[in-house]
Design a protein that fits this description.
The protein has about 110 residues and is α+β, with helices and mostly antiparallel strands. The chain contains 1 helix and 5 strands; from the N terminus they run αβββββ. The protein has one domain: Copper binding periplasmic protein CusF (OB fold (Dihydrolipoamide Acetyltransferase, E2P)). A 5-stranded mixed barrel has the order 1-2-3-5-4. Strand 2 and strand 3 form a beta hairpin.
Amino acid sequence: MKTTSLPRLIVLSLASLFVLVATTFADTFSGKVSDLDAGNALLTVTSDVDQSTKVFKVSSDTVIIGPDGKPSQLMNLIETTVVTVEADAGPGNVATKITVQPDSAQQVP
């Protein structure tokens, strides 16, 4: 009869709990870039849905993905660019990933 060791079961349980907690505390916000303060690494995004605004801190660890799915840079985020920002839900509101959404006006049907 094969038995599962208790330490292995505990490690698997803790790993599952960590994944659940990590995804629970992530924050996602979509909208248009309304301001970029590159000197202070601050990105302001305004939601098209309810006009709410969030300011995100951009760090050197922030991943920025362009509309083509390739890596991009902070300076490419001009006003009115539509983005989705994933951020730590902590008090610093640090962006972990910024994805530029394709411009639907430029897409060919």
